[in-house]
């Protein structure tokens, strides 16, 4: 029997890649859902439903229509600066809607795979965070994502929470970019870019998010999984790797401290994630950053 898979947030940067990758697999019948109309109609073997999942009635109708065996939630308010000043909106999609998805999955017997973030951690550690480590978010986006995780764990008996970090890859018009794209664009235009040299991350190639999800569809394991790259480096180092791989001018990269950057939203200093659990239990194997950059820029 083919599995019916529902990808929520299917117009988003990560959700679209997941939708495309899963719809290439004949074992699945895939439906994408997003707030707005399909951003790339006719581009793959999937059905598409526009719905506002924050509206109870629309969410209920979506589940009634699709009757999914697996639900993947890639919808969110995923811009920390915006969440910081729009608490209610952030709460509605990052917490309340997530709780409702979890409840519907539980009632219907569907497996729930929910995307979360390294920003649940404070960043005060000097070591890669493991799934068992205690979260303590430093911004409102992180607070909402942590509460979303808690709802899933409370309400679902068949779930996986996938924490990902600084997702990079090619984007479609209309999607928000990522810092690697910004670096490449600026350097190609001969413009300088300031990048923080004191925020450490484990960047995730967007195709590896799909890889993690496919593994978690096959496994029945419950719990949290860190799914990201294996290299932990600063944003400045990531920028240098982009310049290096694309043969662009290094001197346009201006490393600065978080203090000098004057970011309005606090961010964790060190939020690298350990992928040992995913490697051991799922056989997850991420691309290297260099491989990911080459795939992203098609070189
Ligand atoms: N991007 C990153 O680097 C990281 C992302 N994450 C997590 O991964 C997930 C995906 O992030 P990302 O790819 O950046 O997401 P995007 O911001 O690119 O996409 C989010 C999608 O959610 C959809 N959406 C928002 N509100 C609603 C609603 N009320 N009803 C239906 N759909 C809605 C939007 O639909 P539409 O476009 O149709 O309006 C949008 O396409 C999130 O959970 C995020 O927290 C975690 C770590 C890093
Ligand atoms: C735009 C920009 C960002 N940065 C840094 C800040 C930050 O550490 C990193 C990424 O910046 P962004 O603004 O893209 O995203 P930011 O909001 O920091 O990143 C987060 O997004 C949310 C959704 C997550 O869940 C996190 O995992 C993380 O990826 O790059 C610079 O150094 N220079 C710049 O010009």
From TrEMBL:
Keyword set, alphabetical order: NADP, Oxidoreductase
RmlD-like substrate binding domain residues: 4-297
Cellular component GO terms, alphabetical: cytosol
InterPro entries in alphabetical order: dTDP_dehydrorham_reduct, NAD(P)-bd_dom_sf, RmlD-like-bd
EC primary class: oxidoreductase
Enzyme Commission designation: 1.1.1.133
Protein task: Catalyzes the reduction of dTDP-6-deoxy-L-lyxo-4-hexulose to yield dTDP-L-rhamnose.
Name by which UniProt lists this protein: dTDP-4-dehydrorhamnose reductase
Organism: Bacteroides oleiciplenus YIT 12058
């Amino acid at each position: 029997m083919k599995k019916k898979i529902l990808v929520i947030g299917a117009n988003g940067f990560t959700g679209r890649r997941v939708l495309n990758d899963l719809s290439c697999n004949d074992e699945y019948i895939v439906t994408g859902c997003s707030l707005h109309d399909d951003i790339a109609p006719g581009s793959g073997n999937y059905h598409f439903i526009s719905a506002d999942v924050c509206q109870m009635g629309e969410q209920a109708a979506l589940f009634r229509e699709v009757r999914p065996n697996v639900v993947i939630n890639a919808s969110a308010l995923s811009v920390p600066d915006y969440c910081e000043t729009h608490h209610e909106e952030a709460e509605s999609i990052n917490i309340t809607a997530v709780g409702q998805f979890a409840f519907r999955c539980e009632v219907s017997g569907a497996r729930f795979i929910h995307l979360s973030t390294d920003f649940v951690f404070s960043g005060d550690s000097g070591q890669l965070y493991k799934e068992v480590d205690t979260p303590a978010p430093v911004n409102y986006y992180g607070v909402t994502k942590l509460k979303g995780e808690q709802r899933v764990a409370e309400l679902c008996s068949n779930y996986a929470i996938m924490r990902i970090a600084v997702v990079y890859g090619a984007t479609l018009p209309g999607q928000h970019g990522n810092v690697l794209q910004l670096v490449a664009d600026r350097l190609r235009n001969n413009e300088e870019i300031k990048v923080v040299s004191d925020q450490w991350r484990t960047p995730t190639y967007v195709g590896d998010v799909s890889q993690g999800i496919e593994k978690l569809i096959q496994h029945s394991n419950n719990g949290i999984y860190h799914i990201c790259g294996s290299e932990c480096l600063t944003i400045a180092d990531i920028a240098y790797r982009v310049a290096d791989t694309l043969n662009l001018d290094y001197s346009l990269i201006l490393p600065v401290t978080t203090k000098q950057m004057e970011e309005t939203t606090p961010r964790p200093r060190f939020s690298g994630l350990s992928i040992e659990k995913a490697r051991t239990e799922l056989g997850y194997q991420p691309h290297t950053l260099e491989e990911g950059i080459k795939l992203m820029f098609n070189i």
